[in-house]
Amino acid sequence: MKKAIFRRVITAAIIFAFAFSFSSFAYADEGDFRTLDEIKASGVINIGVFSDKSPFGYVDENGDYQGYDVYFANRIGEDLGVEVNFVSTEAASRIEYLQTGKVDIILANFTVTEERAEEVDFALPYMNVALGVVSPEDAVIESLDDIGEDDQVIVISGTTAETYLVENYPDIKLQKYDAYAEAKTALENGNGVAWANDNTEVIAFAIENPGFVVGIPSLGSADTIAPAVTKGNTTLLDWLNDEIGALGEEEFFHADYEATLLDVYGADYEDTLVVEGGVTAAEAPAGE
Amino acid sequence: MDFEAMREYLPLFWDALGLTVRIGWQGVLFAFLLGALGAVILHLRLPVLRQITAAYIELFRNTPLLVQLFFLYFALPKIGIRMRPAVCGVLGLGLLGGAYMAETIRSGLESIAPIQSESAESLGMTRLQAFRYVILPQAVSRSVPGLIANVIFLLKETSVFSTISLMDLMFTAKDLIGMYAKTMECLTMLVVFYLIMLLPVSVLGSFVERRLRHAEFGP
Known about the structure:
- The complex is a heterodimer of chains A (288) and B (219).
- Chain A is of the alpha/beta class.
- Chain A folds into 2 domains: 139 residues, 3-Layer(aba) Sandwich (D-Maltodextrin-Binding Protein, domain 2), CATH 3.40.190; 95 residues, Periplasmic binding protein-like II (D-Maltodextrin-Binding Protein, domain 2, 3-Layer(aba) Sandwich), CATH 3.40.190.
- Chain A is built from 12 helices and 13 strands.
- In chain A, β2 and β3 form a beta hairpin.
- The termini of chain A are far apart.
- In chain A, 47% of the residues are buried.
- Chain B has 219 residues and is an all-alpha fold.
- Chain B has one domain: MetI-like fold (Orthogonal Bundle).
- Chain B is 79% helix and 0% strand.
- The termini of chain B are far apart.
- The relative contact order of chain B is 0.16.
- Chains A and B meet through α1, α4, α5, α6 and β10 of A and α7 and α8 of B.
């Protein structure tokens, strides 16, 4: 009997050792990427977008990718002379997709933050964003102080809203979901008192779903959204920056807004949201 | 490997392990009770109930847990049935597991040759006595390996709980990766914590299996 237990302990130890070495193996090639020339030669660029974040990245009723990010992705493919292969991502896996080389570019409404900039390289921004909070109109949350002790706020795992609330309001209870579709259904079902996310997204939700209002239209710092590439992929990064600069001259992102976002937001948000030529309003006049 | 970060995440992983184990075991217990009931109904060939049980087993064995959880958590509220995520988790796991357990226990009961109950009865035992003292012990001992496999299977199925916002081990790891991008650290911890949860089950399982072999009779 003693011998049997001893054998089991040995087996367990081997299993743990195996698990450890396996996990370091699997990530040994972190930072895998394809250079600009390799992408061109292959004839296909892999771009990670959302498939459930209307109107920025979503799949329409014909099964085609649509939205503000997708419109830009298609233009990238056109200008590179390659086909675009859309890869559907979740918020929390965007960095992994780049680090493991599963996509060449992430165009999934990716907010630029310091923590993320340590893991991936951001190109110039193409959109402004802040956080916002949407809630049912019969119990509007107008300030984060309105949130009761037992109330839960819906967030999507891996978003800036989550990080912001975790760091600045650690007492607020969060109800986390993987995907946009699930978070929205949860809000509709009343599983949480409010949903905190990018303000663009919550405004769109309130417009599309009567009975919900954006009680907090702007929260946290004003951020930007930019394409991201694998850390160290300078050839692709430089090309993207040149591209965004050049697109500014033809007011491409205004056209993008009018094609994809106008129906949802109306014209009022156009100049607030769009960043043209990679230059944000905050830094344009001062020239810092 | 950033061991400092791993130490920092440790409490979150312990919490997640606690939740996974709690919901997992409640689900397993529920599944076992449901499975035992189903197996008895099938074994005794009770009319009507037998058809209902068979339909239940086919329905839950042939749909993924993910779909069942979606239904319980996102669809039922639309018709006014609202349950907390943890309740949905236990219920989903229990219903799925019940279907598997019922089949495992039933096949255990069925594997005992009818001649044994006939012999027992001819020796003067009542049907109930024959079932209690002759059939059941052997059937249980034959079902044990299958039941333990089911338990491990069910505990692993908890990894889809993230859909209904339960912070189980899998979701905690994914969430931390999303926030801090320490992929290797989080995934390693994830593997280790699953092993912490499941290795004792399989060790205990093979121990119980050996002990229960006493009840086996004949070839």
